[in-house]
Amino acid sequence: MGHERFSARHGFALEDKMSLKAFHLIFVALLTGLCFGCAVWAFQGGSAGWGVTGIAAGIFVIVYGIYFLRKLKNVSYL
To answer: Dmax of the chain from CA atoms?
Structure first.
């Protein structure tokens, strides 16, 4: 009942959803930037341990993204 009024008022259908593949692609890109950004911040602050941890996390996120894209290579981005 309320969903129809919301979508009519805002000009889009609620059925238009982002796919899991597209969400993960955006999520991995943002998280990679966050990890490497925190690593740079840590190195500039003099904390080499947290900097290395940030780089390792960024590499892990990239590897996860590649794994996920290969797993869903036959799925559309829409």
So the answer is: 56
pLDDT tens string 31-58 = 999 999 999 999 999 999 999 999 999 9
Helices (H), 1-78: 2-10, 20-44, 48-71
- The contacts of residue 28 (CB under 8 Å, 6+ apart) are 61, 62, 64, 65, 68
This prediction has a pTM of 0.73
Gap between the Cα atoms of 66 and 45, Å rounded: 31
Question: How far, CA to CA in Å, does 54 sit from each of 3, 8, 14, 45?
Answer: 42, 44, 37, 13
